[in-house]
Amino acid sequence: MENSPQRHRDTEKRCEKHIAHKDIKNMVMLIILFSATCFLAYSNGANDNFKGVATLFGSRTTNYKYAIWWATITTFAGSLTSIFIAYGLVTTFSGKNLLPHTIADSPEFVTAVTIGAAMTVMVATVTGFPISTTHSLTVALVGAGFTAIGLQVNFAVLGSTFFLPLLLSPVIAIAFGSILYIIFRRIRIHSGITKEWCLCVGERGKVIPSCKPAAPLSVKYSSTIGITIDTQENCREIYKGYFLGMNSQKSLDYLHFCSAGVVSFARGLNDTPKIVALLLLIKGLPVHWGMLAVAGGMAAGGLLNARKVAETMSNKITKLNHGQGFTANLVTGILVIFASKFGMPVSTTHVSVGSLFGIGLATGRINIRIVLEILLSWFTTLPIAAIFSGSIYWILGKL
């Protein structure tokens, strides 16, 4: 009986140590989760930011530097706007309907999903393939969920809420892109607007050898009239004529920039809440601060690591002129904003590639080999993201 109070105090101390240890573990896990989410935002920006302005670069409307800065500014604006009008996607990507709450709310599970998706997107970025962060996140949820509870994953919700929009969106974009381009082309022809190729003629410097015998190795600099001949990739197709009393080329360039900004804005609006959903476990972090952190990570990734994906999206899928680029952007912007408003997890990548593919089909200038490689990268994303997230969840569970 004399030792009973002492045993009680020892038990209390052990409980306190256990609680303190658990609190420290949770705090460390949440710090890792926040860092992993920022890394995912960076990877997303590197792979996705340029997709909105790819048509500007591909049609030679502007250079890479101006295109990526325009994408960064408008994507950041879309990310901030998502705080107010796209909260439904935060709920969708929290995993609450796909898995039991005890699993979806665990730091280990969310961290595994985040790291798995980020690694998948970054691998694709380094190799130059435009894949979907939405796709990667969805499959990472399934991979970690399968490791956690096996076949108890709610596959009905997975099909209707996630995979159905992801599968249908590129098909719809292909159809809309082809039809809208044909309509716009007929309007252009009916309005009397023609297409021309620019040809640069003017004075240029030329180094020629001197004929003086005393200086056989001397040279002199002369001016001559010449014609600049360049590769087809650097030729610039322009529109000549007026539409509603305005210069058609200047008007189209203005609309093209606006449409690229709309697509980038829509991408920020659609993608930011999906990534922020991973931060819901950090109770002391307000959602709007989480969105600001994600927006900053996406901006940094786009500015520092977007070049390879930019080349694929701008130059390899199909050759574009100004009108075709504007049409592709218009289709992508409309579909992504519509999906964001109704909480549908479509992929900006799938929609933008689908619209470019539709334009290429209508013009007959599609690069089938590149399209097939991109499709293969999308299918490869499935097992890679699932394996990454499932393995990381297993490792974290052991630790």
Short characterization:
This protein is mostly helical.
Description:
- Its main location: membrane.
- Pfam families: PHO4.
- It is built from 14 helices and six strands.
- It has 399 residues and is mainly α.
- It has one domain (20-198, 245-398).
- Strands 1-4 form a two-stranded antiparallel sheet. It has a two-stranded antiparallel sheet with strand order 2-3. A two-stranded antiparallel sheet has the order 5-6.
- Strand 5 (242-243) and strand 6 form a beta hairpin.
- Helix 12 (322-341) runs antiparallel to helix 13 (348-363).
- The chain is elongated and about 100 Å long.
Helices and strands in order:
Blueprint (H helix, E strand, L loop, with lengths): L3 H45 L5 H5 L5 H22 L1 H6 L8 H4 L2 H21 L5 H17 L5 H36 L3 E4 L3 E9 L9 E9 L9 E4 L1 E2 L2 E2 H29 L10 H19 L1 H10 L5 H20 L6 H16 L4 H31 L1
Antiparallel strand pairs: 1-4, 2-3, 5-6
Helix pairs in contact: 1-6, 1-9, 1-10, 3-9, 3-10, 6-7, 6-14, 7-8, 7-14, 8-12, 8-13, 9-10, 9-12, 12-13
What key phrases describe this protein's structure?
single chain; 399 residues; mainly alpha; two-stranded antiparallel ribbon; two-stranded antiparallel sheet; 70% helix; elongated
First and last CA, distance: 40 Å
How many β strands by DSSP? 6
Radius of gyration: 27 Å
Oligomeric state of shown chains:
single chain
Widest sheet, order of strands: 1-4
Specify the helix fraction band: over 70%
The major pleated sheet works out as:
2 strands, antiparallel
Mean pLDDT: 78
Q: Tell me the number of structural domains.
A: 1
Overall SS class: mainly alpha
Percentage beta strand:
5-15%
Number of helices: 14
Poorly predicted regions are 200-223, 229-234
- Spatial shape: elongated
- Topology pattern, helix = H, strand = E: HHHHHHHHEEEEEEHHHHHH
Protein name: Phosphate transporter
Organism: Candidatus Brocadia sinica JPN1
Pfam families: PHO4 (PF01384)
Subcellular location: Membrane
